[in-house]
Amino acid sequence: MRDVIDACIASGQDWDFLGYVDDDPSEPHHAAVARSQDKVLGGMEWLEDAPKETHVFIGIGTGSVKANIDAQLTRLGLSAGVLVHPTASMGRDVTLGPGSIVCAGVRLTTNIRLGRHVHLNLNTTIGHDVDVDDYVSINPLVAVSGNVRIGARSMIGTHAAILQGLDLGPDSVVGGSALVVKDVDEGITVKGVPAR
Questions:
Q1: 10 Å Cβ neighbour count for 73?
Q2: Which terms are listed as keywords in the entry (predicted)?
């Protein structure tokens, strides 16, 4: 996510990165933050006194965790921003929900809706007439064909492909490099070619 913020700032967008909020930062996380000359602001309690104009982003992939954090942020009255890397492309009638993060190389065609806190990772492509519900994470190099619905809190593994017209139920997981050729029921994990 930090690379998307940096690219947005470099392209002239008006962002000022304050730092990370982490309830239990590990030593490697602290070291990585220090190397980038950023800082850990504190845990969730830091947000209780954050200025109300602060925009927040959730950099966690697990949908249920994102939903829980979003509920806390909403209770605190904080708004989620939208980040779109300058190299991403979007066609007509694309709606990005609050907290959406669209990484470098993402291609969004037309008639697409992203819910709250959806993360589209590097070089993902989304076909026409796709609905991605809240708290979904789509990992790098995923290809989603047209007329697909992805249910809330789902996760799509890197290099996966979803064929046209399919429905992925809430809390579903698609394994890396899987080829999804039929609907996936709620809470089900599929993997392989074809995905089972």
A1: 23
A2: Repeat, Transferase
**Boundary of a domain, candidates 47, 64, 80:** 80
Q: Is residue 137 within a helix (H) or strand (E), and if so which, with residue range?
A: strand 137-138
Residue listed under structure tokens 């309830």? 23
Supply the DSSP symbol for 85. Answer: -
In the structure encoding, which two tokens stand for residue 187, read together? Answer: 């809470």
Domain that residue 17 falls in: 2-80
Does residue 161 share a domain with residue 91?
A: yes
| pTM, to two decimals | 0.94
Compute the CA torsion angle 51, 115, 82, 7 (nearest 10 deg): 140
Q: What is the pLDDT of residues 1-51, one digit of tens each?
A: 788 988 998 999 888 889 999 988 888 888 888 898 888 999 999 999 888
* CA dist., res. 128 & res. 113, Å (int): 10
Burial of residue 12, with CB atoms counted within 10 A of its CB: 0-12 exposed, 13-18 middle, 19 or more buried: exposed
